[in-house]
Amino acid sequence: MATIANTTNLLDDTIEILSNDQNKVPGDDSVNLIQQWIGILNQAENTRPLGNKLTELSETLSKESPDTATIQRLLNEIADATEEFSSEVGPEGEMPTQLEGLSAALRNLGVQLS
Q1: Which of 69, 72, 109, 113 has the fewest Cβ atoms within 10 Å of its own Cβ atom?
Q2: Angle 5-10-15 (CA atoms, 0-180°, nearest 5)?
């Protein structure tokens, strides 16, 4: 089971990767990162729908010629779900701020892909 510290570190790493790689379609490294998140999100009932969206994104990215429009749609849906979840975790600690940052980075990546 993921600890809060591990999840916080993974959030930081994810935001950094998304912020640094905004001009390319995500590839194998992104799929590996997504798989880590799927494992974490599938541990709890309230985060499984987000895990399912990430599974869909991972499958799309694994295709020989990923469809950019589908990737953009999924990134926006995941950003929406992440933003909604950030309001549910409460205002304490750094997690809500990190989730909001992740949501913004996902949206920005979607825009960069267009």
Answers
A1: 69
A2: 130
Closest of 114, 91, 95 to residue 2, by C-alpha:
95
Structure pTM? 0.85
Is the distance from CB of 69 to CB of 85 less than 8 angstroms? no
* Cα–Cα distance for residue pair 91/51, rounded to 1 Å: 23
What domain range is 58 assigned to? 4-112
Q: Which residues of 39-67 are buried (b: 16+ CB within 10 A; e: fewer)?
A: ebbeeeeebeebbebbbebbebbeeeebe
Which one-letter amino acid corresponds to residue 12? D
Domain count within the chain? 1
CA distance readout (Å), 85 to 50, 55, 60, 90, 97? 9, 18, 23, 9, 11
